[in-house]
Amino acid sequence: MLLSPIFFASPEGESVFNHLLDRFQAADDSCRQSVAEILEAVKNRKNEAVVAYGRTFDAPNLTAAQLQVSSRELQQAYEQVDAEFLDTLGKAIERIQSFHEREMEDSWLQTREDGTIVGRLVRPVDSAGLYVPGGKGGSTPLVSSVLMNGIPAGIAGVSQRVMVTPPGEDGSVSPHLLVAAQEIGITEIYKAGSAWAIAALAYGTETIPRVDVIVGPGNQYVTEAKRQVSGMVRIDMIAGPSEVLIVADETAKAANVAADMLAQAEHDPLALAILITTDERLAKDVPVELERQLPLLSRQQIARTALVDRGVILIASDIEEAIEAANSIAIEHLELMIQDPWSQLPHIRHAGAIFLGNNSPEAAGDYFAGPNHVLPTMGTAKFASALGVETFLKKSSIISYSAAALAADGEHIMRLARLEGLGAHANSVAVRLGE
Fold first, then answer.
1. How many C-beta atoms surround the C-beta of residue 234 within 10 A?
2. Are the beta carbons of 62 and 55 closer than 8 angstroms?
3. Could you tell me if residue 254 is inside a domain?
4. Are residues 40 and 168 in the same domain?
5. Could you give the CA distance from residue 428 to residue 407 in angstroms, rounded to a whole number?
6. Into how many domains does the chain fold?
7. Between 47-57 and 32-45, two packed helices, what is the crossing angle to 10 degrees?
8. Are strands 127-131 and 6-7 parallel, antiparallel or unpaired?
9. By residue range, what is the domain housing residue 13?
10. In a domain, 207, yes or no
11. Which end of the chain, N or C, is less surrounded by CB atoms within 10 Å?
């Protein structure tokens, strides 16, 4: 059997639960030095380094002149996708656009009777870089990554959105990615992958522009590169393996639970799929369903490894215990397959995304529902949020004093400045008040 149910209130259950609470992992140390060397090479040698790495790992005949996807390639992409794809793409864009438009923040001002005006000015960053993984050499194009990262940046008003993605061996980029990008207004696309693509976005090259924000998923080299350039540019987050936690009662269907656990497990051998249920029968039926459905998957070996190494089925005494455990685990994807999921929503404090009811598979959120699928992992949902429009916005404070207002506040300002030992601060007020 792939997984054996464990009672929450048992020594083994307590051990498993504590392990889940302590699952945060820093970036993989094994590639840290290699990534640092790649970043330094691109910083100093620019296009030359990007092309050299691209030739070694992606497209053997890549040249600097081919780094940017040409207008001809963009046009030809439409000839290589079918009408059904365009139909689905259009509907997905509409859903994601509509949802994220609600996230846009407004500037505001606050005026006081003494003439003081304070407020916040909300402005987009000038440029954003979108990293899109190659997806098995382009055979499984990650269209959803283009949409989930590019659409919020567009809504924020970012004037320059740059996409980078590794080329195939023949130097081409998936037409599905090129069409998806164009449909959301992105036409500046470059053929670069892994850590050297992140370096190019962070430092700029003769061809690839330097940007202010870098977003998008990737392998350990991409993740480590983003970590190392963070601070010089903004990044979306340091993401760990994808994860799902399903809270289920006796009304849940074992086939649905197993299917959603497998959907998460097929991502990566390190993916985390958890079931916490109040129903012992369901806890026994789900492993049977996992065994039945697993052979039907194209990525069954990946899913099997993830389930064997990291999968968990816990039996809780009641829904309250299950929900409290879910809050402590702070999972990326939380599914509530229970009789009345809406009644428990007010009790959820920590989760990247919440899926309510038996008809809300996590896959709907990945592709089509509208909310963003770039979510905090490894317990960081306790303090972090999904990627959104705000990722591409910055806020500036506004302060305007009248002479009367400064006279009224001056003594207080000077008192605090002198207390901190900053005489020049105090004097900058005093000279205006004629003291």
1. 17
2. yes
3. yes
4. yes
5. 13
6. 3
7. 130
8. unpaired
9. 6-25+240-369
10. yes
11. N
What tokens does 242 get? 């994808």
pLDDT in tens, 137-186: 667 899 999 999 999 999 999 999 999 999 999 999 999 999 999 999 99
Concatenating the DSSP letter of every residue in 232-275 gives: TBEES----S-EEEEEE-TTS-HHHHHHHHHHHHTT-TT-EEEE
Query: How far is Cα of residue 347 from the mean position of the Cα atoms in its chain?
Result: 24
- Between CA 121 and CA 125, with CA 124 as vertex, the angle to 5 degrees is 120
Tokens of 396: 């500036």
Give the whole-angstrom CA distance, residue 123 versus residue 389. Answer: 11
Active-site position among 333, 335, 350, 373:
333
Decide if 79 is catalytic: no
Q: What's the CA gap between 164 and 429, in Å, rounded?
A: 50
| Distant-in-sequence, close-in-space partners of 412: CB < 8 Å, separation ≥ 6 | none
Please confirm, yes or no, whether 19 is among the known catalytic residues. no
Q: Which of 183, 266, 289, 332 is catalytic?
A: 332
Tell me the pTM: 0.94
Distance CA 248, CA 339 (A): 9
